[in-house]
Amino acid sequence: MNTYKIAVLPGDGIGPEVTKQALKVLDKTAEVFGFTVEYSYADIGGIAIDKTGEPLPAETLELCRKSDAVLLGAVGGQKWDNLPLNKRPEAGLLGIRSGLGVFANFRPAKIYPPLKNASPLKDRITQDGLDILVLRELTGDVYFGEKKRTTCNGEPAAYDMMIYRKSEIERIARLAFETARKRKGKVTSVDKANVLEVSRFWRETVTEVSKEYPDVELNHLYVDNAAMQLVINPGQFDVIVTGNLFGDILSDEAAMITGSIGMLPSASLNSTGFGLYEPVHGSAPDIAGQNKANPLATILSVAMMLEYSFNRKEAAEAIENAVLKVLQEGFVTRDLATEGSKILGCEEMGEAVASRIGK
Question: How is the chain split into domains, by residue range?
Fold first, then answer.
């Protein structure tokens, strides 16, 4: 295939700004590597609520299903915080993940050598670099379990059901082991099996699946210990596989170890390899429209799209190398700045990366 149809959902806050720069880089990459891209735009999140009253309009989901991949910017903002849960921008994210069947969220956390000083951890901890992949199950857990307001002993109460089916755990576990085989051969499964029955079931199932992969090392950690170990010795990890709730938290922690959440891309895949690609960061409405946003996470999400959905690893590496070149030359956005840095705006950073593709 030489033409790829991409659904673009810029979203809210800084989403449109970072998405614009990512597409600029993708256009240049397509030119260099001899393929073409076709973009179709749709709304999600707060902007969709303002226009239609729904965080995920039916036409947006339909467009995504007809595309080869989806690029999403960011959703949310204080403007919509007081809406009911099923009408908030975040409901659009849950809806599109469920609607597209993307169950596996890949979140790599890597320290680029030029950004070593931006990490909040001491050099002795990060001296050997960092290359972790958090694999988060995306369509189960408390996010999709039954939710209810009720009464308990005569007073108001609420509950969210944490539930996982065996098949959901098996498929994310197999993907973790398959991925680890291509990396350093180690899987860390994170749960809370000392307290939660669903976590005991998770651990039993992951252990059962591990017997199919005798060449991959498996160990288990409780989520509180995993959070601590990420700070004490992040280099011990290769692939971390965990549920939706724990993965949401741990992937953000891993992101901050790298120096800025603005550097972290993600890919959410279904069983056919169809992907939803988005930066890990939020909509950051406080800096929206000011040319201050860091577009690198979205640019690197495009690189993941090229590799995971379109099998164009060479083109993906070209984008990653262009990002590294820009950083090596001392150019950063404000969130990455240290003494002596040359600060670029969002648009200028996009142009800098695009100009280095293929060089």
Answer: 1-111+261-359, 120-137+165-257
Query: Quick check: 116 and 92 in contact, CB under 8 A?
Result: no
Verify whether residue 131 is a known catalytic residue: no
Superfamily of domain 1-111+261-359: Isopropylmalate Dehydrogenase (3.40.718.10)
Q: Reduced to 3 states, what is the DSSP secondary structure of residue 73?
A: strand
Q: Directed axis angle between helix 15-33 and helix 346-355, to 10°?
A: 10
192 flagged as catalytic: yes
Alpha-carbon 39 to chain mean position: 21
Check if 184 is active-site.
Answer: no
120-137+165-257 maps to CATH 3.30.590.20: no
Mean pLDDT of 88-114: 90
Among 27, 68, 131, 252, the active-site one is: 252
The rounded percent of the chain whose pLDDT value lies above 70 is 97
Considering 4, 112, 143, 277, which one is annotated as catalytic?
A: 143
Report the SS3 class of residue 44: coil
